[in-house]
Amino acid sequence: MEFDFVVVGAGSAGCAVASRLSEDSRYSVALLEAGGRDTIPWVHIPIGYFKTMGNPVTDWCYYTEPDAGLNGRSIAWPRGKVLGGSSSINGLLYVRGQARDFDHWRQLGNTGWGFDDVLPYFKKAENWEGNADDMRGKGGPLNVSQSRVSRPVIDAWAEAAIAAGYKQNTDYNGADQEGVGMFQMTMKDGLRCSAAKAYLAPAKQRKNLSIIVHAHTTKIEFKGRRAKAVIAKINGIETSITARREIVLSAGSIGSPQILMLSGIGAAEKLHPHGIEPIHELAGVGMNLQDHLQARPVFKCNSSTINTETRSLFQKMGIAFEYAFRRSGPMAMAASLGTAFLKTRPELETPDIQFHLQPFSATRPADGPHAFSAFTASVLQLRPESTGHLELASGHYGDHPKIYPNYLATKTDCDTLVEGIRIARRIGNTSPVKEMITSEFSPGEAVSDNYDGLLEWARNSSTTIYHPTGTCKMGNDKMAVVDADLKVHGIKGLRVADASIMPTITSGNTNAPAIMIGEKVADMILKEAV
Ligand SMILES: Cc1cc2nc3c(=O)[nH]c(=O)nc-3n(C[C@H](O)[C@H](O)[C@H](O)COP(=O)(O)OP(=O)(O)OC[C@H]3O[C@@H](n4cnc5c(N)ncnc54)[C@H](O)[C@@H]3O)c2cc1C
Fold first, then answer.
1. What is the span of the domain harbouring residue 48?
2. Which of 164, 296, 298, 381 could make an S-S bridge to 361, C-beta 3.0–4.6 Å?
3. Residues recognised as catalytic
4. ω into 443 cis (within 30 of 0)
5. Ligand 1 atom 2: the closest Cα is on which residue?
6. Is there a single domain that holds both residue 42 and residue 162?
């Protein structure tokens, strides 16, 4: 098999890359995906993330190594393994991040990645259903809508946050992120708008685009320092796919560094123990791992929540009918309804924490909702300082890499999360939500506002909100893996384009930035190709 471009990984970024490259009929493009087609209905029904997460048909089902910052706990790290990648199993929340995130990337030496540079690609990707303005895109493939669902307790929380002194923000993806508002989501007509739905569905008839599923890339083959071919197990059969022009790795923050290491690109001392001869030494592969860690305060309340609305078969049938006939109700709900981007200290220039307000609660998603009515005011630190890493567990492509997130390893990270939990409590104590809360379920009244107690609770109960980034970071320093054109340092014909190239994590959910990265690299490749 031979193509002009071979794209590895049909996730948020990879779908955008393959679709945009194949718009030019002069080039043939192969898109290889380890997972299968997105034919499972739960991929398309918004609430389906409860069924696709932890399901080996759609999720890689990674687990972290025991983490000291979480008092030795090992936690699940879902990643999409299906057309659309993580955008097919994610919570649908659409967040670009702060302008300052991208200006910081540019300040680090990444020319072309400042906010003014990336905004056109966010807009190009997007079809925003809300009011048009300079910041928002119309007519792009990725449909972004407002929520079709609301619950009084979440509205009351937002009102309480405003009463507590935080400002209202009706569009956190507009000129200013700061404030309290409702989430926007990647949804069209009540159905998930994954990257596959947005970019592949309209492109799949193109003769110059081959979408190959159940194609697990095992490594890249080189001729000298030039990437020549992708080796993949396609339905179990080893196949070589030659790239006449370029290979683009879009296998995500776990997959892309794993493939590089299996191909001999990484730190020699980490490759040798697995019998891999380094082709090119790049110490940064798999390093600089950043994620958002969420603490999940839960408040029992006296108003209706999903917990109490889904108890009986009769209720569930009602919900199914509401979705079938009106595409609304709990089944049309993204992972959270309300959000707030706030500052833990007034002297900060921009928000450093984000809330996810969910009209349900669970100890673990797999256990189902609690038996009582309650909501969750999940809080995370937007720009953690702690960085982790991942490394190969073996030289076999089928073995999951070892993931070391290294959460809560700096004082700023601990202080910020503790302050976020205190703010959750303070807002919970403010009218009108105060009157709806019957008690604090967790941390619980036994845990006082004392710093050590709250931190200990966070270490024992916090979990990922599924945003690993940065493991093939863009830059010029010795730990950088790709340059500002996303070309792998020291290698020809090979780029990485996905969430792994972020030098620092964006201030918010990471799907929209990953898609933006895919849009931007495709544009760079096509401009260079002429
Ligand atoms: C459960 C969950 C909930 C989330 N919720 C949200 C949310 O609400 N909002 C938000 O903005 N972000 C959310 N995220 C994060 C967001 O979806 C990701 O940051 C984003 O999708 C990453 O895009 P990517 O292109 O880097 O990787 P991915 O989308 O993960 O794509 C990588 C693709 O490469 C494939 N692949 C990997 N290895 C190989 C290989 N060896 N061979 C072939 N193919 C391979 C994978 O199967 C996958 O399809 C969530 C993520 C998860 C998992």
1. 1-67+77-144+185-287+468-530
2. 298
3. 467
4. yes
5. 90
6. no
Length of the chain: 530
Atom of ligand 1 nearest to the CA of 517: 25
Residues with CB under 6 A from ligand 1: 8-14, 32-35, 49, 53, 78-81, 85-87, 89-93, 95, 216-217, 250-253, 255, 259, 335, 466-467, 498-499, 509-512, 514
Asked whether the predicted pLDDT for residue 366 surpasses 80, the reply is no
Ligand 1 geometric centre to CA of 196 (Å): 12
Provide CB contacts within 8 A for 482, sequence distance 6+.
472, 473, 474, 488, 489, 495, 496, 501
Does the bond joining 365 to the residue before it have cis omega, within 30 degrees of 0?
no
Rounded to 5 degrees, φ, ψ at 91 are -85, 5
- The whole-model pTM stands at 0.98
For residue 230, the domain's CATH number is 3.50.50.60
Q: In this structure, how many other beta carbons lie within 10 angstroms of the beta carbon of residue 327?
A: 17
Q: What's the 85 CA to ligand 1 centre distance in angstroms?
A: 5
Q: Quote the pLDDT of residue 364.
A: 78
CA–CA separation, 524 vs 465, rounded Å?
Answer: 31
Closest Cα partner for 226 from 449, 490, 404?
490
Ligand 1: centre distance to CA 79 (Å): 5
Q: How far apart are CA 414 and CA 420, in angstroms?
A: 10
Give residue 214's Cα distance to chain centre.
22
Q: What is the pLDDT of residues 243-298, one digit of tens each?
A: 999 999 999 999 999 999 999 999 999 999 999 999 999 999 999 999 999 999 99
Task: Please tell me the distance between residue 498's alpha carbon and the centre of ligand 1 in angstroms.
Answer: 9
- Judge whether 173 lies within some domain: yes
Residue 399 domain-assigned (yes or no)? no
